[in-house]
């Protein structure tokens, strides 16, 4: 590429992800630097801009935009950025974005929420969901334009249609449709043409074709591979970080005897089984045994009483 590489700072805010998973996610983000040369991705565990978002709050898109813009202007006046002036920011937040949006993009910043993903949409991995949203944000950053979502009118209001095309730019009225979007990893013809047109103006026909081809490969996530593909990202995640991206669980958090067992029960994560076993089954068995032992003296007393009564007759 003849164009300069822009830095993208991914900020992982507190409570947005389990601490055990952060090292694995950092590894996966670093792979983006090997697979494309448009951006240099870096992951932060503390907020360099100090936006001071409250983890329990629900934010509107305009509130997030105003918070970022206000802080950006404040820090720019203090010469905070220096050579970082061209950097873009992606915030991974635990907050709900009002309107049930999964992510929100505005100029040089993108906000991606992890709110309820593990609860409602796993085992489609939260890592895959975040990568899909990050890569989509990178497309926004490169095109420097507000790419319209499916179902969005020219006035900006969302028409909540019942359908989903499977395109990464779909607005999902049915939130579970996001699962198929993450797993299909496609850019529809409409948005492909729109991206090509924008990129072509700045970089020419050849570079625009290369850009769309590169990001189509990124967005489908096939490059992650599986645990069985030696040296693939999924293989490394499992063998080095003990994170199963196919079932979306971290094995070291699994309690009891199942903690070090990599075996997976179809449809149920080992982590869930482990928690159920240690949290419900073991206490129940202990209670039954205790009850049985505790009632032994009473059973013996009742037996002697019956014998006495029958003997008296």
Classify the fold: give the CATH topology of the largest domain.
Answer: Collagenase (Catalytic Domain)
Widest β-sheet, arrangement of strands: 2-1-3-5-4
- What structural class should be given to the helix and strand makeup? alpha/beta
State the name of the first-level CATH class of the largest domain.
Answer: Alpha Beta
Helix/strand order, N-terminal first:
EHEHEEEHHHHHEEH
User: Which architecture name of the largest domain does CATH use?
Assistant: 3-Layer(aba) Sandwich
The largest sheet, given as strand count, sense and whether it forms a barrel, is: 5 strands, mixed
DSSP strand count: 7
Helix count equals: 8
Rounded Rg: 26 Å
Overall 3D shape: elongated
Beta-strand percentage range: 5-15%
Description:
The protein has 313 residues and is an alpha/beta fold. It folds into 2 domains: 6-241, Collagenase (Catalytic Domain) (3-Layer(aba) Sandwich); 254-313. Helices cover 46% and strands 10% of the residues. It contains 8 helices and 7 strands. The protein has helices at residues 22-35, 61-77, 117-120, 126-143, 177-184, 189-219, 233-241, 270-312; strands at 6-12, 39-44, 88-93, 103-106, 109-113, 243-244, 249-250. It is elongated, with a radius of gyration of 26 Å. The N and C termini lie far apart (105 Å). Mean pLDDT is 80; it is low at 154-158 and 252-275.
